[in-house]
């Protein structure tokens, strides 16, 4: 059983460090954001499993030939006052660490959920008083604010897309349509759940720099997914213009002073105001807002210079890899037991 | 019967229109006038208005002057200020926009910048 714990530890280290760095630098996720999203989830989930699994299996090694037998003996020790002589100090340490890490991950997930939920409820309360329903589309409200703002507030049947009248005034009909579809895609594809999971992952493991990397990449990927959905209904120019105008705070016609005026319109983007921001989940710190520029430029780049999606075979390989990643820790945890049979 | 949520909205609208603090009774009369067309037959109880007011007070939208009887109520700040607060929550560190902008400009290629300018109606 000891070799399984070493294998799990190696897997945990790879998934915690080199794998996210390589994936976050890769170019292909912009071509197939959905596939990339699957891989990110597999990395995070398998990373957590192997981290806990490695310590658990190593700690249980003296107690039994496999996980189940070991767990059985451990239960006897914890609940039945059986002798602990078999366990050395480091075994107890590893087992406690595995237990605490598992608990920590689950609790952070719960606490993050509660925090987000509260924040959203308060936001929705104020929104109900401050905004008015949009005449054009259902479950959309307009708030009286000069800056062009668009975001969505998930909440099951009470999900709502919020537009500022500054935005409504600046955008042409097609561009508004692009914004609305973009936001509604966040809601229908439940992007807030992904953001929630990765925000929790990050606050659970803040010392792990790659947890931040993962969150950032996931933020960017959901924006791309929403862009792609919008592209099915509106033309590309409208979408790019909408992104630029939302980012700028000014319409194209207002920035005539210099060449960069129009571009100056293109800083952060729809993304900054919707899923990545506080009503949905992640508290927007200075780092995120600094990264927004990068996200926006990635989004605009892939719209201006589109590259074909990954070929089917490539996508299948990546999905297969994701499945293998999830299977690996599971198998490593169980296989020593199967051998014993 | 209007829901509590709708009432909260209407009450806030009235309070924002009235710079002076008002009593729950006065507010009820204003509400009755406001909703005259739609719910003329529905007489609103003062207790309902008080419930709505205390909910709004809890949400930090309304403040109550307790030095007089009956208590007088008024909006804490203007609608615009509340909206600005709410939007600040969404926009995050809005003052950083300039920095974001500079980074974005630095990170697009020349060709893309040209395409963007063209799209946005500049030559």
Question: What can you see in these coordinates?
Answer:
The complex is a heterodimer of chains A (341) and B (123). Chain A folds into two domains: 1-87 and 311-341, no CATH class; 132-310, no CATH class. A four-stranded mixed β-sheet of chain A has the order 1-2-4-3, sandwiched between helices. Chain A is elongated and about 75 Å long. Chain A has 14 helices and four strands. In chain A, a hairpin with a 6-residue loop joins β3 (150-153) and β4 (160-164). With 341 residues, chain A is mainly alpha-helical. The relative contact order of chain B is 0.11. In chain B, α1 crosses α3. Chain B has helices spanning 4-17, 24-34, 46-58, 79-91, 97-107, 110-119, and strands at residues 22-23, 62-65, 72-75. Helix content of chain B is 59%, strand content 8%. In chain B, β2 and β3 (72-75) form a beta hairpin. Chains A and B meet through α5, α10, α11 and α13 of A and α1, α4, α5 and α6 of B.
- Percent range of helical residues of chain B: 55-70%
Distance between the termini of chain A: 14 Å
N-to-C SSE string of chain B, H for helix and E for strand: HEHHEEHHH
Taken from the alpha-carbon principal axes, the silhouette of chain A is elongated
Secondary-structure element series of chain A: HHHHHEEEEHHHHHHHHH
Determine the CATH topology of the largest domain in chain B: Arc Repressor Mutant, subunit A
Tell me the strand percentage band of chain B.
5-15%
Count of DSSP strands of chain B: 3
The secondary-structure class of chain B comes to: mainly alpha
CATH 2nd-level architecture of the largest domain in chain B: Orthogonal Bundle
Q: By helix and strand content of chain A, what is the structural category?
A: mainly alpha
User: Beta-strand percentage of chain A?
Assistant: under 5%
> CATH H level of the largest domain in chain B: which superfamily?
Winged helix-like DNA-binding domain superfamily/Winged helix DNA-binding domain
Radius of gyration of chain A: 24 Å
The parts of chain A where pLDDT drops under 50 for at least 5 residues are 250-290
Write down the overall mean pLDDT of chain A: 84
């Amino acid at each position: 059983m000891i070799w399984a714990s070493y294998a799990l530890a190696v897997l945990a280290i790879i998934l915690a460090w080199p794998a996210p760095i390589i994936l976050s630098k890769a170019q292909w996720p912009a071509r197939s954001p959905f596939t990339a999203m699957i891989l990110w989830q597999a990395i995070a989930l398998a990373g957590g499993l192997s981290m806990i699994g490695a310590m658990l299996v190593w700690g249980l090694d003296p107690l039994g030939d496999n996980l189940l037998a070991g767990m059985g003996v451990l239960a006897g020790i914890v609940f039945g006052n059986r002798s602990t002589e078999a366990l050395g100090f480091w075994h107890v340490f590893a087992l406690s660490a595995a237990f605490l890490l598992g608990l920590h991950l689950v609790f952070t997930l719960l606490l993050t959920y509660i925090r987000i939920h509260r924040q959203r409820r308060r936001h929705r309360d104020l929104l109900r008083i401050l905004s008015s329903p949009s005449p054009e589309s259902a479950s959309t409200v307009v708030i009286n604010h000069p800056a062009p703002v668009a975001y969505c507030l998930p909440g099951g049947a009470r999900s709502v897309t919020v537009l500022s009248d500054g935005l409504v005034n600046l955008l042409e009909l097609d561009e508004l349509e692009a914004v609305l579809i973009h936001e509604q895609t966040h809601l229908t594809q439940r992007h807030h759940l992904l953001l929630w999971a990765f925000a929790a992952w990050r606050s659970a493991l803040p010392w792990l720099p790659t947890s931040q990397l993962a969150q950032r990449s996931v933020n960017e990927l959901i924006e791309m997914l929403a862009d792609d959905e919008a592209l099915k209904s509106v033309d590309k120019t409208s979408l790019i213009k909408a992104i630029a105008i939302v980012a700028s705070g000014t319409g194209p016609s207002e920035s005539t002073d210099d060449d960069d005026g129009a571009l100056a319109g293109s800083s952060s983007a729809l993304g900054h105001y919707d899923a990545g921001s506080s009503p949905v989940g992640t508290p927007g710190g200075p780092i995120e807002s600094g990264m927004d520029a990068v996200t926006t430029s990635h989004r605009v780049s892939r719209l201006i210079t589109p590259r074909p999606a990954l070929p089917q075979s490539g996508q299948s390989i990546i999905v297969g890899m994701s499945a293998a990643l999830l299977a690996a820790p599971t198998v490593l945890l169980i296989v020593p037991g199967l051998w014993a049979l | 019967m209007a829901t509590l949520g709708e009432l909260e909205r209407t009450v806030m609208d009235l309070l924002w229109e009235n710079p002076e603090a008002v009593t729950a009774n006065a507010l009820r009369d204003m509400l009755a006038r406001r909703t005259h067309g739609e719910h003329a037959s529905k007489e609103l109880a003062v207790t309902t208005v008080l419930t709505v007011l205390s909910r709004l007070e809890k949400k930090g939208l309304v403040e109550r002057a307790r030095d007089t009887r009956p208590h007088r109520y008024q909006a804490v700040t203007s609608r615009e200020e509340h909206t600005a607060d709410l939007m600040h929550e969404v926009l995050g560190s809005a003052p950083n926009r300039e920095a974001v902008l500079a980074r974005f400009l630095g990170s697009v290629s020349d060709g893309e910048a040209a395409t963007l300018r063209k799209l946005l109606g500049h030559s």
